[in-house]
Write a structure and sequence with these properties.
- It is a single chain.
- With about 350 residues, the chain is mainly alpha-helical.
- Helices cover about 70% and strands about 0% of the residues.
- A two-stranded antiparallel ribbon has the order 1-2.
């Protein structure tokens, strides 16, 4: 696909990132959001996997787009904490080592960026297997079932540093690429009635299931996978309808924009939440110095979750654009490009 954008997938990512922030803001039905929003992103990423790129070019692209933002902002957060709490120097040095290995998946400021670390590991490992087995006729079948096996291991064993969820999400990456490679086989499922049925199944399954990927706890992990696939299919099907409906062009453009800015939102949403927390504490007359004591939100009652969601979406996009407007001239100068 090269650099060409796929509009309905941008729309799906836009819907997905709204659900991510919604869930983190403790909005209604958040338990349903946690059952599929991360699998949705891995499914889309697997579908967009580029088979034609060399391993070197693929790795360079992932380092630039995923790895560097992941380590840069997380290490910055650790350095700030080290200045504020110098007594934690030894543990923070260890934390930086984990970040460099993409093994640190949580933090008060950039906790949502665990997604980037996991996606980097999964996509590079997938490309590594694809490159090493490129002359084998059945390589994609082998890679897919390898990812199935790794997901089962992830479900059964609770690895340190939340590594189990990386193994589990790799399954959805593999499924995404399999769907891309077998378009004719999946065409029979591309029907409104099936999409509607998939959403209904997800709602019913979600009613009796629960998932905590951080703690690697699932009431029924098979129904978690099945439900996540049903919900992801529903979102993608709805996204295609939105793409094709001219009358809702503004909605389409807005969701596409959100999808393209999903990286900024993933990185900065919890930082943006701090602004709402500070405002709530100020209204109550509480000490603003305690703003770091609450994670990820403070009070979401009486509709405050809506404010958290809106701020968590809008502020990261504005901040991301501002940061790039500052950094871009320096990058152009470093590369010898004239303005």
């Amino acid at each position: 696909m090269g650099k060409k954008r796929v509009a309905y997938l941008d729309i799906a990512k836009g819907i997905g990132i709204i659900l991510v922030v919604w869930a983190h803001a403790r909005g209604p039905f958040s338990n349903y959001m946690y059952l599929f929003h991360m699998p949705l992103f891995f499914l889309i990423s697997g579908y967009l996997y580029n088979e034609d790129k060399s391993f070197k070019d693929f790795l360079f692209g992932k380092v630039k787009s995923i790895y560097i933002p992941f380590i840069m902002w997380n290490i910055l957060a650790v350095l700030i904490k080290t200045i504020l709490f110098p007594g934690r120097l030894t543990s923070n040095v260890k934390l930086i080592g984990q970040i460099l290995l993409t093994l640190n998946k949580d933090g008060q400021f950039f906790g949502a960026t665990w997604f980037l670390g996991s996606l980097f590991l999964v996509s590079v490992f997938y490309k590594l297997l694809d490159t090493y087995l490129r002359d084998w006729k059945y390589r994609y079948s082998f890679i897919f079932f390898s990812f199935v096996a790794l997901a089962i291991v992830g479900f059964e064993i609770n690895f340190p540093l939340m590594f189990s969820r990386t193994l589990i999400l790799g399954l959805f990456y593999g499924i995404g690429h399999m769907i891309k490679r077998l378009p004719e086989e999946w065409k029979e499922f591309d029907r409104p009635l099936i999409a509607f049925f998939a959403v209904v199944v997800f709602i019913v399954v979600g009613r009796y299931n629960s998932a905590n990927m951080g703690a690697n706890e699932y009431r029924h992990y098979f129904s978690f996978v099945f439900g996540a696939l049903c919900a992801s299919y529903g979102v993608i099907f709805i996204s295609r309808i939105i793409e094709q409906t001219i009358e809702i062009r503004v909605l389409k453009m807005g969701l596409c924009y959100l999808g393209r800015k999903s990286l900024d939102i993933v990185i900065w949403q919890f930082v943006a939440f701090r602004l709402v927390i500070a405002f709530q504490l100020y209204r109550e007359g509480s000490l603003l110095s305690s703003v770091l004591d609450y994670y990820p939100v403070y009070d979401v009652e009486q509709g405050w979750w809506i404010i958290y969601t809106l701020v968590g979406l809008v502020v990261p996009m504005l901040w991301g654009n501002f940061v790039r407007s500052i950094v871009k001239p320096f990058l152009k100068k470093a590369n010898g490009v004239k303005k």
